[in-house]
Amino acid sequence: MINNRNIISILILIILLTGCSDQRILEKVGFTHSVAYDLGSEGQLKSAISVPVSNPDIKTNRIFLKTESKSSKGGRINLNKQTSLTLVSGQLRLALFGQSIASKEGLRNNLDTLMRDPSIGDRINIIIVNGDAGNLLEKNFKQFPPTGKYIDRLIHKESAGQSIPNTTLYTFTRDYYDDGIDPIAPMIKDAGESIRVDGVALFKDDKVVGKIKPQDLMIFAFLRGNLQQGELDFDLSNDTQESQSLTLTAISSKKKVHVTYDDNQMKVMIHVNVLASATEYIGELKLSDNADRRKLEQEISEITTQRAQQVIKYLQEKKADSLGIGTYVRNSMPYSNWSKLNWHDQYPLVNIECHMHIKITDYGFLR
């Protein structure tokens, strides 16, 4: 019995000592939350990281480090030499890429490095910065949390509203290697005292070739997939005589794509049906009147259809198949025919038409 008690006491002591050892180790570890990449001088890579800290001996709530190197791994070695902490990537949440590197060098090499690191999960967010990513990450915004966490919360809030995509390391690389679609990523910018969503970056292969402007984000979202929520504002003052403005909320949409061939000419038809609630309307029409409501629905359907056609035309000009039209074309033919089709050359020439129909399901009541 005594021997058993001694053994149990020794095991408990070992566990307690092990816990103390782990505690001392954790105090020496820096868990990288955000990383930023930009194009440096003479082809160098500018790397920057943000590391949250809760050490009472350190006055700030995070450590910001930056360096220049030939590669991201070389940059990590240089960054490690700047701090007493051992930097690890297991808690990495954001990878920011400045406009310079995203449009000139592309993202492939740095994403490949992230993918090969077993400590990094594939759910980290990929974000494009309209400007210098390192400078944005370094800046402190007084009214908001540390910049890395601020960006993280901003992106998750906006993507939950489905106005921008939730682009992760997994989804980006998946679309990059898919021959029927090109990747996209949210774009942000420094707005002085805050950070703003600046649209959606469009890619051809791994390079940014254009962007969807903020005012067209919901139109782009309609064309890209089915929505379960969202908001849309209309300035109707220049398009109709009876109406000035309209705000739609509680939006849901369903998209259907049909690929047809007439005399060997490919045609793609996109049909989008939208249901929404009118929460604000300024104009002479009465939404409680069925005829007036149908007239308004027809007007805003035509407006959104025109805007959608402009977005499609812009995508074709940039040769960015961000809507995944190629996946529908690929599914409409034998794969042997698809493999012979040079889709990236064919895509800008395809006749793509869009028809949008918006139905107002709820318009409130007057008290």
Describe what you observe in this structure:
The chain has 367 residues and is of the alpha/beta class. It has 2 domains: 28-211; 213-366, Nutrient germinant receptor protein C, domain 3 (GMP Synthetase, Chain A, domain 3), CATH 3.30.300.210. The chain contains 12 helices and 14 strands. It has helices spanning 2-26, 72-80, 99-104, 108-116, 133-138, 147-160, 169-177, 217-224, 290-317, 325-331, 335-340, 343-346, and strands at residues 29-31, 34-39, 45-52, 62-69, 86-88, 94-98, 125-129, 184-190, 195-204, 207-212, 232-235, 243-262, 265-283, 351-362. The strands form 3 sheets. It has an 8-stranded mixed beta sheet. Strands 11-12-13-14 form a 4-stranded mixed beta sheet, with helices on both faces. The protein has a two-stranded parallel sheet with strand order 1-5. The chain is globular and about 85 Å long. The termini are far apart. The mean pLDDT is 89. InterPro entries: GerAC_N, Spore_GerAC-like, Spore_GerAC-like_C, Spore_GerAC_C_sf.
What helical percentage do the residues reach? 25-40%
Cα distance, first to last residue?
82 Å
- The main sheet orders its strands as 4-3-2-6-7-8-9-10
User: Overall mean pLDDT score?
Assistant: 89
Q: What percent strand? A: 25-35%
GO cellular component, one term: membrane
Subcellular location: Membrane
Family: Belongs to the GerABKC lipoprotein family.
Membrane topology: Lipid-anchor
